[in-house]
Amino acid sequence: MELPMLIIYSITHAFQGRDLLRQMGIRAYVKRTPRTIDPSGCSYSIEVYPEDIDRAEQILRSAKIRVTGRHMGESDT
């Protein structure tokens, strides 16, 4: 199962965001964004479980971590 992901431009912000989400009780994982989603291959994503995606994005945006996109997993393709 492919988890939904929030696309973050910077690896530094991706890891900061992951740590923040984990502090808030959200399971979060950093991975390079697949080229099928970001052809430039320059971004990283934070994967979270589907039930946490909205809350996770809100937390990141509140912390001024720029979310450049969202991919909802297998159903998006």
TrEMBL record:
This protein's source sits in the domain of life called Bacteria
One family from Pfam that matches here is: Se_S_carrier
- Name the InterPro entries on file: Se/S_carrier-like (IPR021778)
Tell me the ranges covered by the Putative Se/S carrier protein-like domain, including all copies: 6-69
Which protein is depicted?
Putative Se/S carrier protein-like domain-containing protein
At the highest ranks, the source species' classification is: Bacteria, Bacillati, Bacillota, Clostridia, Eubacteriales
